[in-house]
Automatic annotation (TrEMBL), chains A, B:
Listed GO biological process terms: Mo-molybdopterin cofactor biosynthetic process
Alphabetical list of InterPro entries matching this protein: MoaB/Mog-like_dom_sf, MoaB/Mog_dom, MoCF_biosynth_CS, MoeA-like, MoeA_C_domain_IV, MoeA_C_domain_IV_sf, MoeA_linker/N, MoeA_linker/N_sf
Cofactor(s) essential for the protein: Mg(2+)
GO molecular function: metal ion binding; molybdopterin molybdotransferase activity
Pathway, per record: Cofactor biosynthesis; molybdopterin biosynthesis
SUPFAM superfamilies the UniProt entry points to: MoeA C-terminal domain-like (SSF63867), MoeA N-terminal region -like (SSF63882), Molybdenum cofactor biosynthesis proteins (SSF53218)
Species of origin: Polaribacter pacificus
Enzyme class per UniProt: transferase
SMART domains: MoCF_biosynth (SM00852)
Protein name: Molybdopterin molybdenumtransferase
Keywords noted in UniProt: Magnesium, Metal-binding, Molybdenum, Molybdenum cofactor biosynthesis, Transferase
Length: 395, 395
């Protein structure tokens, strides 16, 4: 049995590369950018009027002039015009090109207009005011978005601005999610007394959906030849297999055996943690196999604690570790890492983790009451209020 | 001009109800639950074996017996069997029904099996051990998920477990996103010297996508009759109109005028904030109109600071306010609330907000460098390192 830290390191070192694809930029939110995005021109691309008002030659104002005949209008989206007479002015709109020969903009609030004459009502006007200078934000060729950025609404806006109607992103892995266990019936079925409905595969589908990874699902009976045949075909088709169940010590827990027979090389089986100890991980040349124990919380936390980091490493994303402050003392005797469900709250810039008492790894409903797991290390039995530990959010 | 606090209160008080719809549970992640989810049976629904091993009558162990003849196997998914002879045992698998007449489970690790006889190798066995008692987690009829919960992977699992193959959720608003401004060209176009590409509508589409709200987009020229005709038809069709641009003091900023002529009742125009001051908000009987100023950061922050809370209020969700600790002194002279872009980091359970220096509301690329806005209140000019303020995340 290995430690959580060792298991995580092995999983991360086994990251795969799924390649790159080009997709419409508007569909790219949540995906990982696989090219550098550079400015195609200066930003702003011209001396840009930043306020609605009048544009003047600053020299005239400096010479004491306060009233300016309006020569014309420079609208946003119109070609640049020129001030013909330096003692006149041009009405200008936010977003317009600054007219030629002008070098200050006075906003309407500070101007009085009558009979085609604009009179400035303030004394403080500075050279270049209310002008967003060409290239001030970015120069043509500057990197605006780094490769391996997770694309959010902010990046979508920049992609649009530089004309990237399609964009290169990390391809997503092809994932098959498999449940086993003869006690499981479909969601639509009414279970008999000794049966329960399938739920883990749907939880996993949803956890992957959060990463924008589509997935397929299958249910296999606890029958070794059938398991073997099906899994063989899955290994040929998918980058990732996620299993729930059949990895423990039960008479029908054929999975480790079947995976070995199919040439999946085991990296480890069992991690010193609760819940989710019998976690099995291995790989073929082209596929990674995460076989999670079948208890709902075991499957859930292992997906978050191992599959998520493996995926982020695979696509080139480094995430910041989040940590939080324990709100009360916790005692945990076994020499195992303990993934404890917590509610998160914010107080004065502190992130507080309040433990939720569940009834062990089978208590699916207890997940609804929490927001995250706090990861309490092995080799420590008493965890004090105020101590800080890593958390793994799921909301 | 009203304060940010007043504006937000008005917006929240103007929340709409979009009704309820029933959708497949597997498509419901991110949506808001509009029914109570109750346990359809006890959880666990039977005395559930929690470890692979053997089940015995505890009384026999208590009487000193350590070796038990194996009578049979109780697999997960099989009907409950009975222990025929109280001095025998039954092999049991995790997830199985506890056999009748048994009341303790000893895991395989603590048992030695030879010639059909299981011998227990430990002395500490307790009555009921390794049995997850029927109804221990939840009783039939207990509320498992409250109405108005945002559905996440955890809730998806519970919905599956109780057989809710379809689920009632809040309907999403029908949203039209409209850009104005004659300087704007399509993402695929090469802009002329005085033009720029449309980007705000796509940023808004993406910000709404984060809320699982689909939206449509349109671009209108700065022509009053056209604006009026189009907006009239939008008001008849959509629950929400989001505008970007044409709300300031420019000669072609027809929007407030057109909206008034179309019977949209103005709640306010202009909020004491930077960026995004000329924000206009109003309603008809059936539609809400958020008209954001056209600078990219103004549109972005107003959507987060006003549309998001309005939406959550409309669908019945109360969100916790997040706050963070300022990492350095900030000085801001105008008597306006200041939405300052910040990078977030975690240190010892503290959420730290580090300001990003941008070049004002036109500097779209600066959004890429930050994670959130920190909201610095008006009526204060100096903000000290270590002070705590509300933040609005966008990643």
């Amino acid at each position: 049995m290995i430690s959580v830290e060792e298991a995580l390191q092995i999983v991360i070192d086994s990251a795969q590369d799924f390649g790159v694809e080009e997709i419409p930029f508007i569909q790219s939110a949540g995906r990982i950018l696989k090219e550098q995005i550079k400015a195609d021109r200066d930003f702003p691309p011209f001396n840009r009027v930043a306020m609605d008002g009048i544009a003047i030659a600053y020299s005239s104002f400096k010479n004491g002039q306060r009233s300016f005949k309006i020569e014309g209008i420079q609208a946003a989206g119109s070609e640049q015009i020129s001030l013909q007479n330096l003692e006149n002015c041009i009405e200008v709109m936010t977003g317009a090109v600054l007219p030629n020969k002008c070098d200050a903009v006075i906003r309407y609030e500070d101007v009085f207009i009558e009979n085609g004459i604009a009179t400035i009502s303030i004394d403080a006007v500075t050279d270049g005011q209310n002008i967003h200078q060409k290239g001030k934000d970015e120069k043509a060729g500057d990197v605006l978005i780094k490769q391996n950025t997770i694309i959010s609404a902010a990046e979508i806006g920049v992609l649009a601005t530089v004309g990237k109607s399609t964009v290169k992103v990390a391809k997503q892995p092809k994932v098959m999610i498999v449940s086993t266990g003869d006690e499981l019936v479909a969601v639509d079925d009414v279970p008999l007394a000794h049966q329960i409905r399938r739920s883990n595969v749907f939880t996993l589908v949803s956890l992957l959906e959060k990463l924008h990874i589509p997935s397929e699902t299958a249910h296999l009976t606890d029958d070794k030849p059938i398991l073997k045949e099906k899994i063989k075909s899955f290994l040929a088709t998918y980058d990732v297999l996620l299993f729930s169940g059949a990895v423990s010590k039960g008479k029908f827990d054929f999975l480790p055996e079947v995976l070995a027979e199919l040439g999946v090389v085991k990296s480890f089986h069992k991690v010193a943690q609760r819940p989710g100890k019998p976690f099995w991980f291995g790989q073929t040349k082209n596929s990674s196999v995460f076989a999670f124990p079948g208890n709902p919380i075991s499957t859930f936390v292992n997906c978050l604690a191992y599959f998520y980091p493996w995926y982020f490493k695979s696509i080139g994303v480094e995430l910041q570790e989040e940590n939080a402050i324990l709100s009360e003392d916790v005692s945990f005797k076994p020499n195992l890492a303990y993934f404890l469900q917590v509610q998160l709250s914010y107080r004065y810039g502190h992130l507080i983790a309040s433990p939720i008492t569940g009834n062990g790894s089978g208590d699916l409903a207890s997940l609804v009451k929490a927001d995250a797991f706090i990861q309490l290390p092995a080799n420590q039995n008493e965890f004090k209020k105020g101590e800080v530990f890593k958390i793994i959010r799921y909301r």
